[in-house]
Design brief:
There is one protein chain. The longest helix is centred in the middle third of the chain and has 37 residues, at 116-152. The chain has a three-stranded antiparallel beta sheet. Helix content is 56%, strand content 27%. It is an alpha+beta fold. The radius of gyration is 35 Å and the shape is elongated. It has helices at residues 2-21, 24-39, 106-113, 116-152, 157-175, 186-203; strands spanning 41-67, 72-98, 102-104.
Length: 211
């Protein structure tokens, strides 16, 4: 026990002067730097390629008939043509990050920078789109039930066809009301990110050049 106590006292005697020399201001500056790096906003653009293939086909049927008093002749000519086109497109996608790994949605970004007006506008648009998508889902369900029920109950062909048309309308409603990748423009997001980062540096007493 005596040896252990002497060892602890020796270690403390070595560390104590170092601790006394530590600068609390430097420690706080380092903490501020870490906080800034974990909180700053940045934009990242990524490019990817997509291969699009389009296939077109056309079937032409020509029928002709010849009649005479005691003779008739019919001729049918069927021709088919097809065309295939392949195209590679380059798409650019951009993302908003807080720190190094936290990806932000447009709504989170606008809330963070305090642009409440813009946030309210896109929230209203998104809610409208969500409502239309719900209507589309209901329409698809009604059409599907009509098709299955009509087929099971041997309903008329026109009823089944109408149910199928209702379901197709539902798919179109959903397709035209999908949420976009972004409601805000990248240049707006970039400018607001710069302003946010500058204010954050000022609040943390960091140099403007610090990154």
């Amino acid at each position: 026990m005596m040896k252990r106590a002497l060892a602890i006292a020796l270690i403390f005697s070595v560390i104590a002067p170092v601790m006394a020399l530590a600068d609390p201001a430097q420690d706080q500056a380092y903490v501020n730097q870490l906080y800034y790096r974990n909180s700053k906003l940045s934009l990242e653009a990524k490019k990817r390629t997509v291969d699009e293939v389009r296939n077109y086909s056309n079937v032409s049927i020509d029928s002709s008939s010849y009649y005479n008093q005691n003779y008739s002749y019919s001729n049918t000519d069927i021709s088919k043509s097809s065309l295939s086109q392949a195209e590679t497109k380059e798409l650019t996608e951009w993302y908003i990050y807080r720190g190094a790994i936290r990806e932000l949605s447009d709504f989170e970004f606008l809330d963070l920078i305090g642009d409440q007006g813009y946030l309210n506008r896109i929230t209203k648009i998104e809610n409208q789109k969500a409502g239309m998508r719900m209507l589309g889902d209901i329409t698809i369900g009604v059409g599907l039930v009509g098709m299955i029920g009509g087929a099971g109950l041997s309903a008329s062909q026109s009823f089944v066809a109408s149910s199928a048309l209702v379901m197709v309308v539902g798919f179109f409603i959903n397709a035209f009301n999908q949420s976009p990748a972004h409601y805000i423009q990248p240049d707006y997001a970039q400018q607001k990110s710069i302003e946010f980062n500058l204010k954050l540096k000022k609040d943390l007493n960091l140099p403007v050049q610090f990154e």
